[in-house]
Amino acid sequence: MAAVLETQKLCKSFGALTVADQIGFRLEPGARHALIGPNGAGKTTFVNMLTGALAPTSGHILMNGQEITKTNQSARVKLGLGRTFQITTLFRHLPVLDNVALAVAERRGDAQRMWRAASSHKEIIEESQSLLATLGLADDAATAAQDLPYGKQRLVEIAIALGLKPKVLLLDEPAAGVPSANTERILQHLEKLSAEIAILIIEHDMDLVFRFARRITVLVQGQVLVEGAPGEIAADQRVRDVYLGEATHA
Predict the structure, then answer these.
(1) Residue 62 forms beta bridges with which residues?
(2) pLDDT in tens for each of the 250 residues of the chain?
(3) Can you spell out the DSSP letters for 67-113?
(4) What is the pTM assigned to this prediction?
(5) What's the rounded Cα separation, in Å, for the pair 11 and 57?
(6) In angstroms, how far apart are the furthest CA atoms of the chain?
């Protein structure tokens, strides 16, 4: 079976600085996969190449076996590649429902006609409400995004990404800036997402990573150091040395 997302010898250089070096990666259908690594490992660069925000210097990116290396960002979204960001990108003054409805409308091709009042269309509002309910946000539909606690804002961003009906969902530090007491809620809702969606999470919260992921890739200095099941990663001395620390997940 073809991987839903794959890279082959993916490289990125900025002049003499190589930030991605021959990265080979596979995201399997229905995956719950984590990408971890120390600061400067090249994680964000890698994700930006996957989404088309950054062009690789060389190598290939495939989605369901189809070459997408030179495909633009919007076309990748239409192919089913969704993403959240390290910092929330919400329409802060709009109600939560309208934030999600705009994404649903964009997918349906209705966004330009309804950008001021996306939630006024019945089918779109119903789908958006369903997405909010899935993430435990039904009671927050009418609240301005900026008035939500930050943890809930992260969930709204996930709802927006789901509104595009992705086959692959890239979550860039979904727990970033969220109080540790609230990361449990994010984890619970991630675990409830459809098994048909392959999820790649890029995250520094190791508790969340080891509880969520069934497979983990460790990136160091732009190269894949090791990949394996969580138990294998936790026991790998190389990972301990460069990232996790001796006391972590012993």
Answers:
(1) 6, 67
(2) 679 999 999 999 999 999 999 999 999 999 999 999 988 899 999 999 999 999 999 999 999 999 999 999 989 998 999 988 765 668 888 999 999 998 888 887 765 555 555 555 788 899 999 999 988 899 999 999 999 988 888 889 889 989 888 999 999 888 877 777 778 888 888 888 889 999 999 988 888 899 999 999 999 999 999 999 999 999 999 988 886 554 344 3
(3) E-TT--HHHHHHHTEEE--SS----TTSBHHHHHHHHHHHHHT-GGG
(4) 0.85
(5) 6
(6) 56
